[in-house]
Design goal:
Order of helices and strands: HHHHHHH
Helix content: over 70%
Number of helices: 7
Structural class: mainly alpha
Largest sheet: none
Distance between the termini: 7 Å
Oligomer: single chain
Number of domains: 1
Length: 182
């Protein structure tokens, strides 16, 4: 653990060598927490709410939400959580901060699982539902909804919720160690 006198601390803060790892870790926590919240909202509110709607409402509402969520804010958090967690790990390779690596590494692996699930399961199911077209012009809405595999989407979203929430917790643990290392 390195201790700095006030003038040395100001110098270190001015050149950013000590601020960067903590700042990146904080950004990783923020983006991972946001994504855990997004996945969690689908788990405990959106999908249970849609489950009780008729087929036209389900297809139309889900298509609309899927279109709306594809924006720069979502993508910044979705991709940022992975990139920033990886960068946080890289910035904590120094000997005095290496004790954070197990927590940050676990967070990276857990969030990577959520990203893989998103790309392998949820996005293809979303795309299939979008490809069905305008609900007002779909002849068999029940078949489109059934083809979506709502239960499969929800089950894998629960896994995304759990892994991203666990990643968030790991990053908080790392932040607590980071703060104690000063």
């Amino acid at each position: 653990m390195t201790t700095y006198s006030p003038p040395e601390a100001a110098s270190v803060a001015a050149n950013g060598t000590q601020l960067l790892p903590g700042t990146v870790l904080a950004a990783a926590i923020l983006t991972t927490g946001l994504m855990a919240g997004v996945f969690g909202l689908y788990t405990h509110t959106i999908m249970p709410g849609l489950r009780h709607t008729d087929d036209r409402t389900f297809v139309g509402a889900f298509q609309s939400m899927d279109k709306a969520i594809m924006n720069r804010w979502f993508m910044a958090a979705f991709l940022g959580a992975l990139v920033l967690t990886g960068l946080a790990a890289a910035l904590h390779f120094s000997a005095d901060r290496r004790n954070l690596l197990p927590w940050i590494g676990a967070a990276f692996a857990l969030y990577l699982i959520a990203v893989i699930i998103t790309m392998a399961v949820n996005v293809p199911l979303n795309d299939g539902l979008k490809a069905a077209g305008d609900p007002a012009r779909i002849g068999d809405l029940a078949a489109v909804r059934q083809h979506f595999h709502e239960a499969r989407w929800s089950a894998w979203n629960l896994v995304r919720t759990l892994t991203s929430t666990a990643a968030f917790g790991c990053l908080i643990a790392a932040a607590m160690l980071h703060r104690g290392a000063k």
